[in-house]
Amino acid sequence: MALTWILVADRSGAHIWQTRGRNLDHVKEIAHPEGRLHDGELESDAAGRSFASHGKGSDAMEKSESPSETVAKRFAKELADVARDARAKGAFERLFLVAEPGFLGMLEGALDDPTRQAVAGTVKKRLVDADAAHLVKALGDRIPTLEA
User: pTM for this structure?
Assistant: First the structure.
């Protein structure tokens, strides 16, 4: 039976669970308190400057994302790196991703191709604070071998 990892995350942290059948075991918690901060609380630089394409002087460059989006994307990349390294070491064969929709998209986008291919399913729910029993109840239809 394949060893399965379940990565349950949001912008403020993640839990990694594993199962090789009926039991769900907690592997690791990854805290990310910076993810709880709002844009005004995060260190933010003023818009960058670029030289004007015509004439003298410079123009302000627009920011493409908010400071909180930048922090969230950086955390998604960190989690993707953890998953990549674990997959490369044979820690799991299948991976389930569980996160709120916006963060799930960031996480999926940060995965390398081999790890993305190991993803057996995704769940668009915020369950990062759930205990094992709640996760089994919420994910039992996706991972049928889990048992409460």
Answer: 0.78
Instruction: List, as one string, the DSSP characters of 59-120.
Output: EEPPPSS-HHHHHHHHHHHHHHHHHHHHHHTTS-SEEEEEE-HHHHHHHHHHS-HHHHHHEE
Q: Order the strands of the 94-99 sheet from edge to edge.
A: 24-31, 13-19, 4-10, 94-99, 119-124
What mean pLDDT value characterizes the chain?
81
The DSSP element (H or E) to which 58 belongs, if any, is strand 58-60
**122-127: long-range pairs with CB below 8 Å, 24+:** 122/96, 122/97, 122/98, 123/96, 123/97, 123/98, 123/99, 124/99, 124/100, 125/98, 125/99, 125/100, 126/10, 126/99, 126/100, 127/8, 127/98
Q: What are the structural domains of the chain? A: 1-32+68-148 (3.30.420.60)
Percent over 90 (pLDDT), the chain:
53
pLDDT band per the 50, 70, 90 thresholds, residue 95: very high
**Is pLDDT above 60 for 37?**
no
